[in-house]
Amino acid sequence: MYICVLFDLLLYKYPSLAKGVFELLVKLFTRKQTLLENLQKIQMLENPRSIRVLSQVQKFYHEIKVSIEDADLWLNSSNSLSKKQKKKISQIFLFFAHLCTESSILNDDDDEDDEEDKDKDQANMGLDFSR
Hints:
Shape: elongated
Distance between the termini: 56 Å
Largest sheet: none
Number of strands: 0
Number of helices: 6
Number of domains: 2
Radius of gyration: 26 Å
Helix content: over 70%
Strand content: under 5%
């Protein structure tokens, strides 16, 4: 109904009215399109383990991004800080490799032993996520 009234107002011979109505229509349809696009991008995480994995991936993404910015300092160096940074990046990539090969991390429906599973996963990967 609202859209029909706006289209009807476009037919009047008042340029300022038509311009205002047109701007309203553009805003309305742009918002609807943006909402529909964003709704298609939503991914529901129901499982606490999936939520934990997502937050870990986001944390690692940030760490890698910062490391890339400082890569000149540590990449071609052989001091202890450089080795530590290289090991950290290697562990992050191992974590991602483990996620890609182990589908059970994201598809675990049993939440009873969730903390136990988290500890097992971390031990199996040899990573310390408590930082």
